[in-house]
């Protein structure tokens, strides 16, 4: 399986590029259906990302072409207009060989700026100074390459508009759907946890605790005691991480978690490192350090690193039982129909993420559900 941490930069099969720079849909394409069942509008959609054949940032046009991003696209206000209006529902043609995001915006359009180097600045709804902060918007992520369609609904950054995805091809799959009233339940549940209440931004969105930390809305030392407890425990016992057919065994030596078989030693992470699954827990896509970093990050967020030295722990029924834990992720999982969510970047460990893939896809439907 291609994880969220790797599929956005995945490789594509060789693709012919149209001389004018736009690659049009052909037999190697699939349907992308946008369905607005939210009860709100108007709705605009933006399909933006990377053309895997050229490495250029691109956007999908309404007629199914992958068009390179250009600073020439910025209008007099300094922003592009890559919007595609949707009235109820709309079917687009998505060519094979694109990796990126499908953004949806309700009530107002999003503003994407093409920066020098033809690099697109994406919305950051967790940043109060971002021009898109007041807009109800959200996104799904995908890669459509030679191995098929790989896609997810993500709450890693925030939850604003409840989304669900359905993928047809070799089989029929769906994920991401919140239970009825789920959006309001998420907002209410986080308001009820004092340390997390500041992450609820009126009725616009809830933001992930890592972003809240950076914005001064979340305690930067929240997980410090839990991190110290784990570090102290593994000074006198060992952890064994299983990744496929390989195992890696380690313990804390000095102030580093040291594993065998070529794994990079890990310094003690901060609360921010755990929440972002980065910094001391950065996971290279190397099949060695990466899986161990992911297991540590998942275990810290889920609160299971002291349950057993055999990691990662697959039983979701054991997650988030500690008083000090990632309640943001807990609440997301509690409010999805299938129990799957992307509450943090390593939530794909043991396949609990809202992620689906198909090797022979024909149709991907993104639904804005009622709220």
UniProtKB/TrEMBL annotation:
Every GH64 domain range: 25-370
Membrane-spanning parts: none
Pfam families: Glyco_hydro_64
Extent of the signal sequence: 1-27
Recorded superkingdom: Bacteria
Keywords, ordered alphabetically: Signal
InterPro entries: Glyco_hydro_64 (IPR032477), Glyco_hydro_64_fam (IPR037398), Glyco_hydro_64_N_2 (IPR042517), Osmotin/thaumatin-like_sf (IPR037176), TAT_signal (IPR006311), TAT_signal_bac_arc (IPR019546)
Protein name: Secreted protein
High-level lineage: Bacteria, Bacillati, Actinomycetota, Actinomycetes, Pseudonocardiales
